[in-house]
Structures are given as C-alpha cells and as structure tokens.
Amino acid sequence: MKTNRLGRACVRVLEIVIVACLAVMAVLVFGNVVLRYVFDSGIALSEELSRLLFVWLIFLGAILASVQRVHIGFDALVEKLPLAARKGLVLLTGVLMLAACVMFLIGGWEQTKINLGNSYPVLEVSYAWLYGVALVFGAGMFVAIAGNIWRALRAPQGPELTKDLGDRILDKMPEVAADRHDEDKR
C-alpha cells in the first residue's frame, strides 16, 4: 500500500506542477498581450519563460498520460490476438519504449551539461533548465512504462491488458450511475 500511496502522491505532484505551469503561462501571455495593445509596453521575460514552461508542461503531461494510461493507441490488431501474444507484444513494445527512455536520459544529460554555461538572454537562467526536462521525462516515463508493463503482464484477464481510457470509462459508467442514484435517494 505504501507504493500505491507514493504513486498517487507523485501523480498529484505532477498534476499540480502542470496546472501551475499552465496558469503562469496564461497570466504571462494574456498580460503581455494586454500590455502591448493597451499600454504599448510588455513584459520582457514573458516570451522566454512561457516557452520554457510550455516545454515542461508537454513533457510532464506525457508522463502523466502514461501513468494514467490515456495515451492514444491503436489496438485493433492486438485485441484479436490470444492473451499470450498480447502479453508478448506489451513486453516487446514496453522494452522498446524503455530503451527510448534510456536514450532520453543519456541525451538529456549530455545536452544539460553542454548548456550549463549558456543562458537565456532576457530570463538569464541556464539553458540547462530547458534540456533538463529530458532527464525528468526519461526517468518519469521509465518508471511509468515499467509500471504499466508490470501491471499488464500480471493482469489475469485479457481485455484489461490493452483497455483504453474510453473502454475504462464505459466500464465505470454503471457504477457512477448507481452512486448518483444513491445520492439522489438521500
């Protein structure tokens, strides 16, 4: 149960950081637009900081989508295969994705080291903050993908193995409807 609690805490932190990035970006960009058109001025660091936050937002969002298994996937072929073949494909694609995560870690580390001395002209922070997201992404995705592989290979039944978000929502609808019905009775 500790790992489950830790996992939920990590997901919550990801969600909060993503929302914070989006909120700061929205304020900076909207504020800059208003300042430019109304007061003929602007916030100099708005563009650079918004771009940096956008990059972090995208990569952290990809980690969150992987953890929650909501990435878009094509499973029409996989659904037709027997359970053993499905598990084999999950393992194969998972290993390929883990290898890509290792490449992100190695490349991100190299780029971060190279750009430690370079900084944004206006923001005056190191470009390492831009390339460092590859390290966070590589590590986060590695953990998320490894967890997804483990969960998929341990799944006793076949359909849960490759079930996408839409199918999981449809499965939950009767339960949600029953809960709503119980609330209406009160």
Q: What would you report as the Rg, rounded to the nearest angstrom? A: 21 Å
- Largest sheet entry: none
How would you classify the helix and strand content by structural class?
A: mainly alpha
Give the proportion of residues in helices.
over 70%
How many helices in DSSP terms? 8
Measured by DSSP, the beta-strand proportion falls in: under 5%
Low-confidence stretches: none
Describe, in plain words, how this protein is organized in 3D:
- This protein is an all-alpha fold and 186 residues long.
- The protein is built from 8 helices and no strands.
- The protein has helices at residues 2-39, 46-67, 76-80, 83-114, 128-131, 133-154, 159-162, 165-185.
- Helix 1 (2-39) runs antiparallel to helix 2 and helix 2 (46-67) runs parallel beside helix 6.
In short:
Helix content is 80%, strand content 0%.
State the main characteristics.
186 residues, mainly alpha, 8 helices, 80% helix, globular
SSE diagram, text form:
Layout: H1 2-39, H2 46-67, H3 76-80, H4 83-114, H5 128-131, H6 133-154, H7 159-162, H8 165-185
